Amino acid sequence: xxxxxxxxxxxxxxxxxxxxxxxxxxxxxxxxxxxxxxxxxxxxxxxxxxxxxxxxxxxxxxxxxxxxxxxxxxxxxxxxxxxxxxxxxxxxxxxxxxxxxxxxxxxxxxxxxxxxxxxxxxxxxxxxxxxxxxxxxxxxxxxxxxxxxxxxxxxxxx
Length: 158
Hints:
disordered C terminus, 4-stranded mixed sheet, 3 helices, alpha+beta, Immunoglobulin-like, single chain
């Protein structure tokens, strides 16, 4: 059995931890680093970014096939394209090997929208894309709402 003073001490520690969690917001976590990196495995998710943050998409492909990721839908009122997409080889000097196509977007205004990319060959018309990547993006002023700490995957808060 535990004594009454031990139970009170444990209860006070639990309250202190809960109080600390309630004070901590995703904005506090994200203010340390504003970039958010999404990969193929984040397809279909919803993400929250504060205004001024950079959203980086690192999507996989295969070199030498003619397929490329292209932006199919972008809510430009909340996300601005930053530069041109770049490529990064997963395995150096391997013909037909895996590559990553990297896109950057800046959260410019509060709001919500869709960001969708298609993996397709530019010259093929009336052909559905081989793959699609789609996320819902919520942009907030300052920090994201408290409940995002529990809903957004921890690996997204980088």
